[in-house]
Structure formats: C-alpha cells, structure tokens
Write a structure and sequence with these properties.
The protein has a six-stranded mixed β-sheet with strand order 3-2-4-5-1-6, with helices on both faces. The model has no long low-confidence stretch (mean pLDDT 91). The chain has one domain: 3-Layer(aba) Sandwich (Peroxisomal Thiolase, Chain A, domain 1). It has eight helices and six strands.
Length: 235
C-alpha cells in the first residue's frame, strides 16, 4: 500500500465555479448555479494574453493557481502533471477545417495552442517555474492516469506534485466522434508527507480489478457533470 496526502483541491465547472461551491453541492448542502459562470480569466497572464487564452489554458491556470493557494504552496516550486482527454478541441477543429479549406490562412497563434502541453507551458512561464512538467492523455481514463502519474512521482521523488486535469466542449466534426459537452477542470496538490494543510490521506495500490461502476459513487450534483470528458475526476 502506498500513501500520499492531498494538500490542496481546486475545481471549476460553469455551474460550480470553485471548490467550496462544488463540495457543498456534492454533499447535498448547496445548489449549482442557475446561470452558468463565464469562463475564468487567469490572472497569471498579462491582459492581452488573458484575452487570447484558449479555454484549456484558462481552465488549467485557474484551477492550478487555486490548488496552490489552498495548499499554501509556491507554484514555482512544484513539478506538475497536466492531463486532458482531448486537448483543445476547439483549436483542433479550427485547424482541421482551415487545413481542409484554406491552408495558407492557418493562424500561427492558434497553431501553437493546439499542442497538448500548451497549458503546461503557459503555467510554467506565468509562474517562472523551472520544475519538471508532464502532459498526459488517456482518453476516458485520463484523470485516473494523471493521478497515478502524479502520486508515483510524488513518492519516487519525495516531494509535492501539482496535478491539473481539464477538458473543454467538443465542436464541429470532432463532436460527432468525441463526447465532451462542457468545461470541467480539477487540480490537486499531492504531498508525500502529512502537513499542516493536508486535507486527506490517499492510500493506493495497483491490482487487477473489474471496471468499477463509477456512477454509483457520484452524488446527483456530480452526475449532472458526467457528460464532460474529464468526468473521471468526479468520483
């Protein structure tokens, strides 16, 4: 059995735009917003960059910053694992459509936001972080694999790791083959030792098992978010 500790949690969905609201709703002690919140505007970026930021960058930086604040950790000191099932589906739909119809009109700015580690790059630049950063994807099991990677790195190196998971809405032709019906992001600061800000202890091991029915683990408020690509973070 391996043990790590969760020192900070952050969450963002349009109807539950911060962890306190999400935690209350998941416990049945609060309600989701009737009017969805606007996409977050990451304060790490200069105003011009903030306006141009893609949904994936905005979500990732919002929850990463909030998790570090909750854990009272300096962002520049933390290695990180960024995980997304699909990356930026909006940018990729734009690129595929443009390449098929007017390839010479492809935007260099949009192109550099299409790579899977773009949010990790914005994060490390915005926080002046020189620690290792990993970008992962594992389709519908992306958050679980990100959690495994972060927890393993945490124990192997004996230091805290930031885990950031995020996905956005599927659009265009990609929406016909990929299910992702909205924005969802979550971040954790994972530590190898219990500290003053530790929220919970996570004991874990690897073993062969049947696929769990995760829907049974979700409250009604969490089930309402189950159509989003990062929904494996919800249990």
């Amino acid at each position: 059995m391996n043990t790590v500790y969760i020192d900070g949690v952050a969450f963002w969905a349009p109807t539950l735009p911060h962890w306190d609201a999400a935690r209350a709703a998941f416990r049945g002690e609060g309600q989701a917003l009737d009017v969805p919140a606007k996409r977050p505007a990451p304060q790490l970026l200069p105003p011009a960059e903030r306006r141009r930021a893609t949904d994936t960058v905005a979500l990732a930086l919002e929850v990463a910053s909030a998790a570090c604040t909750a854990a009272q950790r300096e962002p520049a000191t933390l290695p990180s694992v960024f995980v997304s099932a699909h990356g930026d589906l909006g940018v990729n739909d734009y690129m595929c459509s443009t390449l098929a119809t007017a390839p010479t009109m492809l935007s260099p700015t949009r192109f550099h936001n299409s790579v899977h580690n773009a949010p990790a790059g914005y994060w490390t630049m915005g926080t002046a972080c020189h620690e290792a950063s990993t970008a992962l994807t594992a389709y519908e099991h992306s958050f679980a694999n990100g959690l495994l990677a972060a927890a393993t790195q945490c124990l192997a190196d004996g230091r805290a790791v930031l885990l950031v998971g995020y996905d956005v809405t599927a659009v265009g032709a990609l929406a016909t083959v990929t299910r992702s019906d909205g924005l969802l992001a979550m971040a954790l600061v994972i530590s190898p030792e219990r500290g003053a800000h530790s929220l919970l202890q996570l004991d874990w091991t690897l073993e062969a098992a049947d696929q769990p029915d995760t829907a049974k683990l979700l409250s009604p408020a969490a089930q309402a978010l189950a159509g989003k690509a990062m929904a494996d973070a919800l249990p």
